[in-house]
Amino acid sequence: MSDRSAWTSRVGFILAAVGSAVGLGNIWSFPFRTASNGGAAFLVVYLVAVFLIGFPAMMIEFVIGRRGEQNPVHAFDRIGHGNWSFVGGLGAFTSFVTLAFYSVVGGWVFSYIAGSATGAYFGDPAAYFGSVASGPIAIGAHALFMAVTVGIVALGVTDGIERATKFMIPGIFVLLIGLGVWAATLPGASAGYSYYLTPDFGTIVNNFGSIVPPAMGQAFFTLSLGFSVMIAYSSYLDRDDSLPADGGAIVVINTLVAVLAGFVVFPVLFATGGAEGATGGSGTAFVALAGAFGEVPGGQVLGLLFFVVLLFAALSSSISLLEVPVSFVTEQYGVSRAKGSLGMGTAVLLVGVPAALGTNYLTFYNDVVFNLLLPIVVFLLAAFTWFSGRDIVDELQRGTSLGETFPTVWLWWVRLVVPVAVAVTLYLGVKGLYTGLTNGTYF
Ligand code: PFF
Fold this sequence. Notes:
Blueprint (H helix, E strand, L loop, with lengths): L9 H12 L2 H13 L3 H29 L3 H7 L6 H34 L6 H9 L2 H20 L1 H28 L4 H9 L3 H6 L1 H15 L6 H6 L8 H29 L10 H14 L3 H35 L3 H21 L1 H26 L6 H7 L7 H34 L5
The structure holds 4-fluoro-L-phenylalanine.
């Protein structure tokens, strides 16, 4: 495996993993899920889910990846648990399905960059969304987004992924902070902040069942957990880095971006009508924001900047989604990176076409991933820790100055607490999916 590429530096790895984590999930889904699930109440549950469930679960993927030094399917073999390879495979499959609809939304972002530049969406934001969200334009934009993703992944881990994210992540921060400062000057700013940041614990208690599944799903999705991505990325990592420190940095930076995005989106929404504008499906987010940019001073330039940020975020995530199946076919079948990327990219393109033909299908793909696949994979990862022996504890400890206590507490936490939390989420999620299937939400 000596010709296996590796990150050129620890910062390169952290940035690439942050690039995977920071995506449409942070800047698009997070503020809108927060807006439509009670504001600050959702924020609190989400933060708990990220730090107490997501972070420890991320460490499971890290230890498997670094110890296995292989693609996510083969990594389990390498650490002596080949019969768990299917978990890596299921994660890779989840990446594949996710990219199919993620890329359609990435395509929308291209259309909104064009629409900001030309001013096309200002007159009638809802009609503009309708014209770009599904149909030929959506398919073309989806193809464009996949082409860019394939191009970067084909260049490889260091030349493509690491270089692209080194440029995009700082760009996202600078632009978001700038937009946040601008948003603070809007008339809706204080109402927006208060809805976003003043939790009402009564709301949490009364809406526990409806807040927990989206908060937990959002936590996994945003941390790129359950996709085998973190197994793949940590397999390119040096033996003597501290996994908890790297993971902690990734989780904190990822959370900062999401919270920062809220500081842009909430003032904008409250400047033009409040949180109601954001409730509803995937499209309302684009319609509400585009409408808001149409109404505020300087909206055209700011809209353009916002959608460019969103594009960077989406691309640094989509390349990680494609990397997982590509690393599998290149290592397992000796296919060249260029051919593997092109072949997988084409398959993803085709599977995504239905999602580009109707937003109801896109919602279906989304819900299958959020409500079913992600909780299943994370549950299986947690189950694996019962069978892995103490190897994973040693791996977590390697390169750190931690004693025995923290890794041991972690082991029991991921064995006991994580699976229970995930099982509850899975139960509620499957119920939601079933309801959607029986009441005609999707088909
Ligand atoms: N974390 C990304 C987001 O929040 O948009 C989504 C994602 C990207 C999930 C890459 C999984 C992944 F492998």
